[in-house]
Design brief:
Radius of gyration: 19 Å
Strand order of the largest sheet: 3-2-1-4-5
Structural class: alpha/beta
Number of strands: 7
Distance between the termini: 31 Å
CATH topology of the largest domain: Rossmann fold
CATH class of the largest domain: Alpha Beta
Order of helices and strands: EHEHEHHEHEHHHEEH
Length: 264
């Protein structure tokens, strides 16, 4: 039996891989990482160090080669919550090409780092990856989450958790932002001096796309007053600086990243 773990560089997928090795002492395990080329540099450190805590596992890194911004520019389309084209092309299509060329569905199980807080996503994952079998080690009993139990394993292995978690990030991909994130996530990143530069870069890149595609294009939407209008990051920044971001509808919405579990 071949075991393939979608190894994102975050704590949840590491926890899934760690539990898998505990269950299968000798079977081959592949840790499959897909790189969007806009990752936080500390992700690569964590990727290597955490993989070393899973004896005998093979770390495989894949990449389309383009950043999300290069993809958006080439397709003349800015990814957003409804159509996360970056997730589909740079993560799912890259991973599916590898899996379908390297793995026999009759002898392969795919594993995902979904814990009990995201259990509702399992059905979609199973459907998307048919005919492969899929499993979720963090949902094995006793349940694990990506903080309490996984942090304990990392502490015992003397591996520091990815730095983005200390800034309030819920995931360790795309530098802590995501086109599927909500206004709350972007606000949090802008207000944190340790990661504010990430917001600044996304604002710069979004403005470049808006210059190309038109000013009615933006990653975020404001729904105040019952009308949905684009909310450019430059406008969000101005509202935060003026202290008026609380007037935005769903300003506390943090959204979610689900590259291997939800696509357009």
């Amino acid at each position: 039996m071949k075991h393939v773990v979608f190894f994102s560089g975050g704590k949840a997928s590491f926890g899934a891989a760690y539990r898998l090795r505990q269950e299968y002492n000798d079977d081959p395990i592949v840790l499959l990482f897909t790189d969007t080329k806009v990752e936080d540099l500390d992700l690569y450190r964590f990727l290597i160090q955490s993989a070393a805590l899973i004896p005998g596992a093979q770390l495989v890194s894949l990449a389309d080669g383009r950043t999300i911004w290069e993809l958006f520019d080439e397709q003349s389309f800015l990814g957003n919550n409804r159509v996360p084209v970056c997730s589909r092309v740079l993560k799912n299509e890259v991973a599916q090409t590898w899996v379908r060329s390297q793995c026999d569905p009759d002898d392969t199980t795919l594993y995902f780092g979904i814990d009990y807080t995201e259990a509702h996503r399992t059905e979609g994952v199973q459907h998307r990856w048919e005919p492969y079998k899929v499993d979720f080690p963090l949902l094995w009993k006793p349940l694990w989450d990506k903080h309490t139990e996984v942090d304990k394993v990392l502490d015992e292995g003397r591996v520091k958790a990815p730095r983005l978690y200390s800034t309030g990030a819920e995931h360790n991909n795309c530098g802590g932002l995501c086109v599927r994130a909500g206004i709350g996530t972007f606000s949090r990143v802008y207000k944190n001096p340790d990661v504010k530069h990430i917001f600044t870069e996304w604002e710069r890149q979004e403005e470049a796309m808006r210059s190309k595609l038109g000013k009615n294009v933006a990653i975020l939407r404001d729904r105040a007053g019952g009308e949905t209008v684009p909310l450019p990051l430059v406008e969000l920044r101005k509202r935060i600086d003026a202290g008026t971001e609380n007037q935005l509808a769903f300003g506390d919405d943090f959204g979610a990243c689900g590259c291997m579990t939800e696509v357009d």
